[in-house]
Amino acid sequence: MSTRLKRDFGLSARIILSFIILGILYVLFLSVLHYLGIGYIPLAIIASAMILAQWYFSDKIVLWTSGAKIVSKDDYPKLHEIIERLASKNGIPKPKVTVVNTQVPNAFATGKSPKSSLVAVTSGILNLLDDDELEAVIGHELTHIRSRDILVLTLASVFSTVAWYLAQFGFFGGIQSRNRDSAGTTVIVIVVAVVTWIVSFLIIRAISRYREYAADRGGAAMTGNPDKLADALLKISGKMNNIPTKEIESVQKLNAFFIIPALSGNSIANLFSTHPPVEKRVAKLREMKTGMGQL
């Protein structure tokens, strides 16, 4: 029997608003290209290519970036069993099961839809958590899949990455160019790329903190054990300070997707974290122990 959660209108509103803003970014980007002299037919081709590329390859880019590997049931029977049981219980197609070989204890989910989704866990989290805590973390990730919030986050992250590289390309290209017209064009490209990156970053911020609270609630409802998710969050965040800095830095590009961002305790990046403070998440989960019927 599946677990039924009340629809989270706050999350739905944020997802819709994020798609609207992403649409505006597309129009802005294409308008600038047209201003720079690109015709309507090439623009239509570029727009179609961008949309199709983001739709078909965005989740694959995340998978490739993370270094996650699809694992078989023979190699990870317990992990497969937990994911399969929770997915079946909650009416979700079983996602692909992947493992990232890193000491950093973490997990994330990605995919365009529940049918094309995957759940990734690190070898570090498998070594750190007990079975009940791991189940709670998996419930959190399956909630992301069920609510489909991972799609907008994936698209915004890919768009942000493209804008970042475009700005770098424009900057270094502008330094090398002495042609006045070319330099003016370079400035326009850099400005648009920087604005696009900032807006994409703000979209990620706007939806990420709220969606983590929503996924915590959903994970608690799936497993009926909010305390175990709270324990898992504390274990993961506590372990981060013991992970070598080089290892932390190697996975920080996935922080928006992780259940807890890979940040050292004194890192200035904490100020710009896409996630709410662990202490607040734990406090809300502890409160839920006596109010599961309100989910």
List keywords for this structure.
mainly alpha, elongated, 66% helix, 295 residues, 10 helices, 4-stranded mixed sheet, 5% strand
Describe the model:
With 295 residues, the chain is mostly helical. The chain is elongated, with a radius of gyration of 21 Å. The protein has ten helices and four strands. It has a domain at 9-65 and 151-294.
Helix percent band: 55-70%
What's the main sheet like? 4 strands, mixed
Shape: elongated
SS strand fraction: 5-15%
Q: List SSEs in N-to-C order.
A: HHEHEEEHHHHHHH
Radius of gyration: 21 Å
User: How many angstroms separate the termini?
Assistant: 16 Å
Q: What count of helical segments does DSSP give?
A: 10
Strand order of the largest sheet: 1-2-4-3
Poorly predicted runs of 5 or more residues? 174-178
Q: Work out the number of β strands.
A: 4
- Structural class given helices, strands, pairing? mainly alpha
Instruction: Please tell me the overall pLDDT.
Output: 78
